Structures are given as structure tokens and as C-alpha cells.
Amino acid sequence: MEAVEDIVILGAGIAGLTTSLGLHRLGIRSLVLESSENLRVTGFAFTTWSNAWRALDTIGVGDSLRQQHQKLHSIVVTSTASGKASSERQLKSTERNGERELRCVKRKLLLEALEKELPIGTVRYSSKVVSIEESGYFKLVHLADGTILKTKVLIGCDGVNSVVAKWLGFKAPAFAGRSAIRGYSDFKCSHGFEPKFLQFFGKGVRSGFIPCDDQTIYWFFTWTPSRQDDQELEENPAMMKQFVLRKLHALPNQIKAVVENTALDSIISSPLRYRNPWELLWGNISKGNVCVAGDALHPMTPDLGQGGCAALEDGIVLARCIAEALKTKERAGEEDERIEMGLRRYAKERRWRSFELVSTAYVVGSIQQSEGKMMNFLRDRILPGFLAWLLTKKADFDCGKLCIS
Description:
38% of the residues lie in helices and 27% in strands. By secondary structure, the protein is α/β, with parallel strands linked by helices. The longest helix is centred in the last third of the chain and has 35 residues, at 335-369. The strands form four sheets. Strands 1, 2, 9, 10, 11, 12, 18 and 19 form an eight-stranded mixed sheet that branches. The mean pLDDT is 90. The radius of gyration is 21 Å and the shape is globular. The chain has 13 helices and 19 strands.
């Protein structure tokens, strides 16, 4: 069976739903194909910096999410070795692009907020893409159930193993040499933590603990694994929890209690992957009427907390560029030429930003988990303040509005 759709988006993650909602706000319909049976909430939560809140406000879901998540007041960096805080950066100030804002948002609530604003039927679940082929200017998207979708615009928001990124010529994301364990701890009552982003690093590991609201805390732990670590931990949440507790044994009891309180079905482990930055500078972010966004474009290590934020930026910019191409008909050229120009404009706007975030995150992560006396001295005495400043600096960005020029 063959059906025709103007715009097909692969993946109902942050980038895919943001792009679809941005198009909807501009009066343009799209179809989002999601391979799973429901919304994907892997990762539990993520840091949303100022740049992300500007994007969320642009598509009209920022205020509802603010009501469900605490605003954080500072970033506290502590040495795992000494247990003493070496830096605290206050977040109460105004940046070049507006007010500084940081919250830890539950991924499920964000995705639900985005989907709720879309027309019924926009997201089609259990729709696994098996191949893509060309039919003149159109693209044919083949699904596992035998359905073939013919589309004018194909957008890949299908994650680190993106089918669309592969079609565009991108290589599979590289292993960063580190892995992450992530957890979500629900205390069912007040956890007693102040609204601060607590970071710990040293002894070859890095961890963070961030309140989402009065009852829940999101935490992460990154380390350089051995092959044995991978094999033993990947499918065993109980072992993951004990592994983290052993590594963080010197930290305050209040911190360890967060890990101990985490239910086994709220812990996951995964290798950290990233796009080679040079691929972002020279690769095909768009080609004809096809492009990628989100993790399909710029998978990055979590060391800046910008992966989800950048996906929101992508969605706003992409929706704006496509709408300009489809609605500004007085411009020279046929519709297919305008679409191609619009996607090229999107690629140009996002190329350097993606390169900057991916490369900076990789370098920051490498520094934070490096060992040696000199590195430990720099990390404990000099780098904490610089790294806290860098986190806020990369968040001082505005991807713009949805208005069409």
C-alpha cells in the first residue's frame, strides 16, 4: 500500500515532536513515524538550560513545564577525592540573550506536553522504517508492515542509529571511550535537597545529582569501562547500583541515599557516543529534500547537558526554514527548489552550532575524567569555576522565533 504525505518525520523524540509542533504552529501538517509502541522516555530526565526554555516558550509549552519543575539556583562542583566543594556558580543573573534559567525536566512530561499540542493522528506508533529510496524528487519510505509513504520532505529525527543519517552518508557515531549510568529517584515525599545542580568528579569518574521537583532527583554517573564492566553491568540494574555506590563511597550519605533509593527499573546503562565534529563541518546535514536533526545530527557526550536543548533548537529552526520554503511562493523557483533551499538554510544555521557543542562536550568530558597529579590539581583548583562558566556560556543562545520573514 502506498500513501502520500507532504512531510514525514522519523522519530517521536524531542527533535521530531518539536519540529512537528513548530510546523503545526505555522499551519503546516506533518506525519511523525515512531518505531516504538508509545513515547520513548529513555534517559528519564535532562537539563534544560536557558536556550531550551526560549525554544519551549516559542512553541508554547514552556509555562506548563515550569510549573512542574524546580528552577535551580546554582551549580556546585565538588572533588570526589576530597569531598569538598571547590566551586559554586550562582545562576541568578541575566545573560546576553535574556534571563539565565536551568531546570531538570522529566523527559516523559516534555514529550507528553509536545504531543498533546499536536493534532490527533500526527504521531503514528509501531512504524518501523526499513529502507528509503528515491522516486524522482520524492522519497519513498518503506515500513516494516509493508506500507510505503511517498513524501516531499523527509526529516530524520531517529536517534544515534539514524536510518536517514546513514542515507545522507554519515558514519555511525563513534564510541567516546566512556559509559554512563543514569537513574531517577522518586522519594514519594520531600527529598530535602536544595535547588542546586550538584556535580562530583575525580578518580576517573563524574557524577551529577539534580532535583526535578520536591520529590524526585535525576542522577548520572560516567566512567571509563573495561570490557568486563560492559558485559556485567549492561543488563543488570542491581549491579549498576552497587557499582555506582562503590565508586561514590566517599561522598556524603545524603548523596548515596539518592542512588540507594532508586528503583531497579529506573536505572539504565549505555555507552557514550558522539558524531565526529569534522563530519558535521563537511557532511551532508541536508541533501535535496532530506535532512537530519537532534541525535541523528549531533549525538554528543552529556558533559554540557546540551543534547536535548540542541534538539529543541533544531526543531524551531527547521520548522521555520521549511515554512518559509512552502509558504513564501513569490520567491523564484518551483516548490522542490524552495524546499531544497530551505533545508540548506537550516543546515547552514545549525552546522557550526552543532560542531561547537559536540567538540566542547567531548573535551570537557575528557578533562573531567582524566587522571594524574597535574590534572587533578587543575581540576580541583582551577577548572571547576571555568567549567561552570562554560556550561552557562553555551546556554546563552537564542535559536529565534517561528515567524516567517
